[in-house]
Design a protein that fits this description.
Elements (H helix, E strand, L loop, with lengths): L2 E3 L14 H21 L4 H8 L3 H29 L1 H20 L4 H29 L2 H32 L8 H4 L1 H15 L2 E3 L8 H24 L3 H26 L14 H31 L4 H6 L2 H21 L2 H24 L9 H23 L7 H52 L4 H19 L20 H45 L11 H6 L5
Parallel strand pairs: 1-2
Helix pairs in contact: 1-5, 1-6, 1-8, 2-3, 3-4, 3-5, 3-9, 3-16, 4-5, 4-8, 5-16, 6-13, 6-15, 9-10, 9-16, 11-15, 11-16, 11-18, 13-15, 14-15, 14-18, 16-17, 16-18
C-alpha cells in the first residue's frame, strides 16, 4: 500500500497511484452514506417520537445534536487528516460512524438517541473532509475535475435518496422495527466501505504540519456551537434573548479565534486554519459562492417537501418520488461537468446558476398555474432544468475553490469549505422557516376568510339551522387561525378538537365532508402562497451566485487550470 506525504501539487513526472479510482469509489460510497443520513432521518421522526415517548423538543434535538456535532468538528477533522494521515482519519471516522449508527438504531430512550446522534455527527466530521482532501492529492488537474464531478453526483443523489429510502423503510416496517432501519441501514454500507477502504486507500498526510493547535480547536469549536445551535433552534424556540446572546458571542469568539490564528502565524507556528487561503481569490470568492449556494439548496428541499406533504397531503415516499427527474438531471450534468468545464472555464458556473434561476422560475410559474389540479408530472421540465444547473455547479465549484490550494493544506481547506457549507445550510433553513411559517399564518387567515362564504352555503344546503351554521363557521375560522399560527403544525389545537354539540345523525357525514373540503382548500392554497413567497429567497440566492461567479479569476479553467498553471498531467 502506497504512502504519500503531500507537500505540494503533483509534478508532471509523478507516477499516478494506480489505485486512485478504486480509492475514489470507496470514498464516494462513504460520502453517500453520510449524506444519506442527513436527510433520511426526517421521515422517521414522527414514528420514533411515538415509539420512544419523546417530547417535541427531544425530537428536535435528534436533528440538532447531529448537526451541531458535525459542524463543530469539520475543520478540526480536516486538520487532523493533514497531521496524522487522511487514511487513518477516514478509517477512524468511518468505523465510528458505522458504530454510532448501530447504537442509534438500538437506542432505548430519547436521551440515548440524542447522545448517539451527537457522536454520529462527530464521526461524520472526521470522515467528510478527508474525501475532498484525497481527491486533491490523488488526482492531477483534469482527472481531479472528473473526480469532483463524480462527488457532485453523489451529493445530489444523497440529498434526494434520503427521503425516498427513509419513506420506504418506514412504510416497510421490517420485523416491526418501525424507525430503527433508517439508522441500521448504515451498518452494512459502513462495514463494506471499511473493509474496502482498508485494502485500497493509500496513506496521505502533510510534511508541513507541525502539531495540532489545541487552543485554536477549543476557540473554533466554541464559536461554532454558539453559532450553529441558535441558527437551528431559533425559530422553534421563538428567538429568546439567550439564543440571540449566543449568536452575538459567536461573533466575538470567532474574532478572538482569528486574532489568535494571526498571532500564531506571526510567531512562525502552525495555526489550525491557514488564513492565507482567504487571500486567494478562487478560494475566498468560491467559498462565498458555496455558502450562498448551500443556503438555498437544502432550504429549497425543505420548502418543497413541506409543500408536497403538509400542503398537498402526499406521503414522504410519494413526495420523494416527485423529485426523481431532478435527481436524474443532477447525475447527467455532474458526469458532463468535467468535459464542459474544460471548454467553458468559469462559464460553466454561470451556466449552472442561470439554469437554476430559469428552473426555479419554471417551478414558480407551474405551481401557480396548476396547483389546484396538480398531479405530479407538471413540474418535471422545470425540475430537469434545475437539476442540470445543480450538476453544473456542485462539482466545478469544488474544483475552483481548491484549485490553488497546496495539497499539504488540503484537509484544513476541505474542513473550512465543509463548515462554510454546513453553516450556510443551517442559515438557509432558518431563513426559510421564518419566511415560510410567517407567511403561512397570514395567508391561511386570508384563504380561510375566502372559503367561508362557500362553506356557509354548503352547510345551509345540508339543512342545518342558521344558528348552527354560524357556530360551525366561526369555529372553523378559529381552527384555521390557531392551526397555522403554531410552531408545530402536527399539533391539533383545542379549537380544532371535536366539540360536544351533537349533530343529527343524518348530517354528521355531509357536514364533516364540507369541513374537510374547506380545510383541504385552505391548506393547499395557504401552503402554495407561502411557498411562492419563500422561493423568492432561493431565486435571490441563485441570482447572487450568478453575479459572484464573475468575481472569480477571469482565466479560471475549472477543469484544467491546475494542469496548465502547474504542468500537471491532464490525461
Amino acid at each position: 500500500m502506497s504512502a504519500r506525504s503531500a507537500a505540494g501539487p503533483l509534478p508532471e513526472t509523478h507516477p499516478l497511484d494506480p489505485t486512485r479510482w478504486r480509492a475514489l469509489a470507496v470514498l464516494l460510497l462513504a460520502l453517500f452514506m453520510v449524506l444519506l443520513d442527513t436527510s433520511i432521518v426526517t421521515n422517521g421522526l414522527a414514528t420514533l417520537q411515538r415509539d420512544l415517548g419523546a417530547s417535541s423538543a427531544q425530537v428536535q434535538f435528534v436533528l440538532t445534536g447531529y448537526a451541531v456535532g458535525y459542524g463543530v468538528l469539520l475543520i478540526t477533522g480536516g486538520r487532523l487528516g493533514d497531521l496524522y494521515g487522511r487514511r487513518r482519519l477516514f478509517l477512524l471516522g468511518l468505523a465510528s460512524f458505522t458504530l454510532t449508527s448501530a447504537l442509534c438504531g438500538l437506542a432505548w430512550s430519547p436521551l440515548t438517541l440524542i447522545a448517539f446522534r451527537v457522536l454520529q455527527g462527530l464521526a461524520a466530521a472526521l470522515l467528510f473532509p478527508q474525501v475532498a482532501s484525497f481527491i486533491q492529492v490523488l488526482f492531477p488537474g483534469r482527472e481531479r475535475a472528473r473526480a469532483f464531478g463524480l462527488q457532485g453526483t453523489i451529493i445530489g443523489l444523497g440529498i434526494i435518496a434520503g427521503p425516498l429510502l427513509g419513506g420506504l423503510l418506514i412504510d416497510a416496517n421490517l420485523f416491526g422495527s418501525l424507525w430503527r432501519p433508517i439508522f441500521l441501514v448504515n451498518v452494512p454500507i459502513g462495514l463494506l466501505a471499511l473493509l474496502w477502504a482498508a485494502r485500497v486507500l493509500p496513506e496521505s498526510k502533510s510534511d508541513q504540519a507541525r502539531g495540532l493547535d489545541v487552543p485554536g480547536v477549543a476557540l473554533l469549536s466554541l464559536a461554532l456551537v454558539l453559532l450553529i445551535y441558535p441558527v437551528i433552534e431559533g425559530r422553534d424556540q421563538g428567538w429568546p434573548t439567550w439564543l440571540l446572546t449566543m449568536l452575538a458571542l459567536s461573533v466575538v469568539t470567532l474574532g478572538v479565534f482569528v486574532a489568535y490564528q494571526r498571532r500564531l502565524m506571526a510567531r512562525g507556528k502552525t495555526p489550525l486554519v491557514q488564513l492565507g487561503m482567504f487571500s486567494d481569490r478562487s478560494f475566498a470568492v468560491g467559498a462565498l459562492i458555496a455558502f450562498v449556494f448551500q443556503s438555498s439548496v437544502l432550504s429549497y428541499f425543505v420548502a418543497m417537501s413541506l409543500f408536497f406533504q403538509a400542503g398537498l397531503g402526499y406521503g414522504p415516499t410519494q413526495a420523494a418520488l416527485l423529485l426523481i427527474s431532478y435527481q436524474v438531471a443532477i447525475v447527467v450534468a455532474s458526469l458532463l461537468s468535467a468535459r464542459l468545464g474544460a471548454r467553458l472555464g468559469r462559464s460553466i458556473l454561470s451556466l449552472g446558476t442561470a439554469l437554476l434561476i430559469f428552473g426555479l422560475l419554471g417551478i414558480l410559474l407551474t405551481l401557480n398555474a396548476t396547483v389546484l389540479n396538480y398531479r405530479g408530472y407538471e413540474l418535471i421540465p422545470a425540475l430537469i432544468v434545475s437539476g442540470l444547473g445543480f450538476g453544473f455547479v456542485i462539482g466545478p465549484l469544488q474544483t475552483v475553490i481548491l484549485s490553488r490550494i497546496n495539497p499539504a493544506n488540503a484537509g484544513s481547506a476541505s474542513g473550512v469549505l465543509a463548515t462554510v457549507q454546513q453553516v450556510g445550510s443551517a442559515l438557509g433553513v432558518a431563513i426559510i422557516g421564518v419566511l415560510l411559517f410567517g407567511h403561512l399564518a397570514s395567508s391561511a387567515d386570508m384563504v380561510g376568510a375566502k372559503v367561508q362564504p362557500g362553506l356557509t352555503q354548503t352547510l345551509r344546503a345540508t339543512g342545518l339551522p342558521a344558528s348552527a351554521v354560524g357556530g360551525i363557521t366561526a369555529g372553523f375560522s378559529a381552527c384555521v387561525h390557531d392551526r397555522f399560527n403554531q410552531a408545530d403544525l402536527n399539533v391539533v389545537p383545542a379549537s380544532c378538537q371535536p366539540r360536544g354539540n351533537a349533530l343529527p345523525a343524518n348530517l354528521v357525514k355531509p357536514v364533516g365532508a364540507a369541513l374537510t373540503a374547506a380545510g383541504d382548500e385552505v391548506r393547499r392554497e395557504a401552503f402554495l402562497s407561502a411557498l411562492l413567497f419563500t422561493l423568492r429567497f432561493q431565486l435571490a440566492a441563485y441570482a447572487l451566485c450568478f453575479g459572484l461567479v464573475f468575481l472569480l479569476p477571469g482565466n479560471t479553467r475549472v477543469m484544467a487550470q491546475a494542469a496548465a498553471a502547474r504542468k500537471e498531467p491532464t490525461r
